[in-house]
Each structure stands twice: as C-alpha cells, then as structure tokens.
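Regression report. Comparing outputs from two consecutive submissions.

Submission 1:
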Amino acid sequence: MAVGTVLVTGGTGYIGSFTALVLLQNDYNVVIVDNLYNSSKVAVDRIELICGRRPAFYEVDVTDEAGLDKVFAENPEIDSVIHFAALKAVGESGEIPLEYYRVNVGGSIALLRSMARHNVSNIVFSSSATVYGDATRFPNMIPIPEHCPVGPTNTYGRTKTMIETVITDHIEAQRNNNKKAGKPYEQWNGALLRYFNPCGSHPSGVMGEDPQGVPFNLLPLLGQVATGQREKLLVYGDDYPSRDGTAIRDYIHVLDLADGHIAALKYLREHKPGVRAWNLGSGRGSTVFEMIKAFSHVVGRDLKYEVVERRQGDVLDLTANPALANKELGWETKLTLEDACADLWRWVDNNPKGYRQDPPAALLEAVKANKA
C-alpha cells in the first residue's frame, strides 16, 4: 500500500531522478514531469531497473500551466509535490537572466497555481545554498545556519530566493484565507531545502548525472577529464583566503540528498509547520584542490587542471550548518566524500556517454542479481 503519491518536477534530472528512486523505495507512488531540456528519459528506465517500480512520466514543461493541470487531473491521488524543475547554471544565469526568471520563477508560479486549483497543498522546494551569497560578510556565519541573512550574488541565486518568497507568501495566504473562512488550513505546507554541492552516483554504476551540454559542477567536469572527454579542469581562482587558495564547498552525496527530501516531506505531512527552511549539507568544507586530489586518488592518476580567473558571483565558503535538519528531520549524511568519488568514477568509467549508451553487461547482471 503506497504511503502517498508525489509529483516530481524535473524528475529525470540528476537530483530529481535520485529522489524519485528513493521515493519509490520508500513506498510512495511517483509521477514525473520533465521537458527533457537537460536530462534523458532513460533515467526512468534506470529507476525501474534498480528498484523494480516505474514512475509515471509526462513530458511537460513546468511553465505550461495547462499541461500541469492535465497531469493533476489525470492523477487526482497526487497529494504532494517535490519541485526541482529549473535552469541551474550560475554562469549562464548572468548571460540570459530573463530566461532564468521566466523558467525558474515563472515555472514555480505556474506550478503553484495549478497545485492550488487541484488542492495539492504540500510542496518541497529544491532551493540552494546560493541564496546566502557570501556568508563571510557576517561574523560567525560559517558554517552557514538557516538564520544567516540571504543575499545571493548571482542571477541563479536570486531566482531561488524569489521562489522561496513566492512559496512562503502563497502558503501563508492559503492558510490565512482558509482560517478566516473557517476551513481547514494546516494542510498547506512548504519546505525550502537549501542544499550545498550534490555529487556522486548510484553505487550500482547504472545511474548518475548525465548533463546534456557542458557540466557546471566540479565532479562531473573531473569525470570528463578522467575519461578523456576533456583535456583539463579549469580552477576558477587560487587567491581565496582559504587553506590552499581555492574556494570551499560542502559536498553531499546525491543519495543522502534524496533522503533529505523524503525526510522533509514526512515532516510536512506529520507536523504541518507552514513554511520551514532547512540546510542539507554535510557540515564539512572541502577546497577545489582537495576535491581534485580525492577524485584523482580514486581514478589512480593525477588529473590535469589549470588555474584561471575567478568567476563573477563565486564566493569563498559555502559550508552548511546542518544542525537544524539533523534535529528536526532526524536526517544526516551517511555517505562520505570518498563514497561520492568512488561512485562517480564507477558511473563515468563504465558509462562515458551517460544515458546515450547501454551499461556494461556485468553491471546490469549485478543489479539484477541484487534485486533477486
């Protein structure tokens, strides 16, 4: 018996697909909507391969309100939404800001309007640590707690901050309006999950991140250097006031991150808190050079890199203080940076073309044997 039915927007993307997998493994039913702009429908097949259950899939753009209405109408059992669908490249967001506002903010508004029409009242939002901007501008804010003032330094972060505000205003209005009308109101809830740097792949080696163009994250780029698809990694700045001059980030295994979404959804359903924000991170900061060293160790050879100028909008340190999520959600990271590097290498070494190729037969047999 399913514990609920969840709509996952952007559910064929990297974090969305892993969250869909973990939802299914936790006895939820899953409906995915994705326009496949930067993902592959093959992710749905891999989810089924690993867990033996297949999510429903609709090729719908999150900005298409009529398309979303159709999905909700055809799946009236949907009671919650986990919202990932967005453009997500920090650098690109500064080059085409209107497109980022149209898709990220406009898509979120379309989704919330459609949810309201179909009385779907719980939303877990994939926000980002970028909402904090440069937390070093305040004393005692590293590692970053949820009460750190937001102040994004790039367009991508500003879209996330804006969506957080839109969700907060919407949920509070629904609760207030229902309360005034003497109707039940506590069913309207939102979780704002500010997470740090997702990484890693499924330990089976058959599911991972498969960016359609140039990857924007450090580990996938290193993966391409390791497989020979890229000559070298560009390191953006080695003049930060850190232990080795490179920027510090908090890396979190994608499976831990997926578990965090399930924990947040359970919290909304059980505690009905209104809107809450939680940081999802490990609480451990690693520099870019430390990450290159860790991944090179797993690969078994040094990977080539070149230091270039800093990127606009990058900050020194984005390390989470995850104490609130640890306490309220009963969630904490279980997998290590070494796990993430080993899992990523297993994925890219065996699937250099990502989902555009079949996994090696030995991996498929191992997955099938594991299920049996």
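Submission 2:
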Amino acid sequence: MLRTFVAVADLGSFTAAAAAEGYTQSAVSRQIAALEDVCGVELFARGARGVRPTPAGESLLPHARGLLDRLADTARALDGLRRLDTGTLRLGAFPTANAALVPRALARFRARHPGVRPLLREGMTERLLPMLEGGELDIAVVSTHKHPSIAADELVTLADDALLVALPSTHRLAGHDRVSLADLADEPWIVADNPEAIATMRARCESAGFVPQTPLRAAEWISKLGLVAEGFGVALVPALAATAMARDGVVLRGVAPDQPRRTVYAAMGRHARRSPAVTAFLTDLRDVAEELRPRPPA
C-alpha cells in the first residue's frame, strides 16, 4: 500500500502507477482509498490532468519513503542471513571437543562462509544445555561423559567416543595395545576436581573391582598430561581429542576388556532449528567427526 502511494506521488497518475507496479488501475484506486481511510484524510487531489499530493500526502510521503527504505534494508539483511553472507553463529562446546573437532569444523565453515562470525563458549555439558535452552547459544557440542543420557529437544549424534588411558611412556604397561583398568588399581588417577568427574571416575573403576586413588586433581588436559608425563599418575583421555593431545612422555592405550565410551552430540536450540548457519555448521561437524573416528587396523 505504501509502495503504491509513493508510486502515485512520484508519477502523478493512478494509471502510470498501476503500470509501474503491475496492478490494474482499479486496484491502485482501492489501495489509495484504503490508505486514506486509515489516515482519515485525503492524500491526493484528483484533477483532469492527474493527481498531486495534498498537504497531508506531502507530510506522509517522507515517512513512507523511510519505511520502504528500512523494509528494503531488512529484506537485504534477511537475504544475507539466508545465503550465509552475514550473521553470527553462537556455539558452545565442552573442552575436549575444542581440541580438534570444533576448530576443524569451524575452519571448514569459515572457508565457505567468511561473512558469518562465530562466537564460542566453552563449558561442560551441564552448563551448556541451560544456555542453549535459554537462547544464549544456537548449537552446542555435548557428551554423556558424566551423564547416562542428555535431556535436549534436538540431538544429532556425532561420535561414539572411546576413552583411552594415558600412561607415562616409561610405564610397565606402556608397550601393551590395551590395558585393563584392574591392572591400574594401585595407580594414582588424575581427574578434574569436581564432584561429577570424581563420581564418574569412581563408578568406572568400581565396575573394574577397585576404588581409584585421586590425590591429584587437575581440570585442564594440558595439566593432566603434564602430570602423567612426569610419572605422577594415569588419566582417561577421550579418543576424539587424542591427536590434539599428543605429547612427549605420554602414550595412549585402549582399555580392556570393556572400553569405556561416551556419546558426543550436537544439540540445537529450538529457536535455531531452521537457522541456515546452524544447518551448515552441523554438516561440517558431522564430516569432521567422521574423519576423526578411529579406524580399525587393516
């Protein structure tokens, strides 16, 4: 309606405006009449040689142009979001996902969509899920490391991630391909200093027949592996991040007979299910997770 009003004002004719906008003349007349009813005033003075805006029409004209300009800007911005030329991707991930999975997926995403700005928040699953639910994040990489299941609306499985045991390279079992947890019953275990991590470690070890000693508590993987390298204990390390955690003095071995595992998911916020940026980044996450998946020996 406003677009038709501006066309009539610019062209000075209902007939010319109808041709320019692809309407019939009667349709233009109806739109202008409806707008005048809304405004409660006459917007055009009709004459034999065409029409011209009344003072009220002249007053409305700059506002109508401004609204149409803002509408065009909004349409261009939305089109840019759809085409991933611009916008923001708000991402959350747990620490070991940020070792290799997330950086590689972000690198692929950036190569294809350099105009989209990623914002990353790191945290454990129990912190990320409320942020996702509250609309602070669009997508989060979470895991069942401390929880048997995850309560979230939209979950996409990325990996079935094995947990490896990190041993000093001089350890008596370092030459084995797989190590039993029971064989490490007398070792100090290095674990994060929070109740959930300690409880998870204890449950895994108790299923192997012993209660773990956890005198050394460290949250960061670089700290854990530094302590392992110097012979202060052993630790469980996710296979998903094993390549990024390689360091001198440490070997990573499979666990026998029952390899502990966790499931890694991409969880999406309800508000972001149809987001083009989330959809595109999810594809990159799945592809990189597949590349990082350990392959059986030939």
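Expected: both submissions complete independently.
Actual: both completed, but the second showed a warning that disappeared on reload.
Relevant detail on submission 2: The domain at 2-82 is CATH 1.10.10.10 (Arc Repressor Mutant, subunit A).
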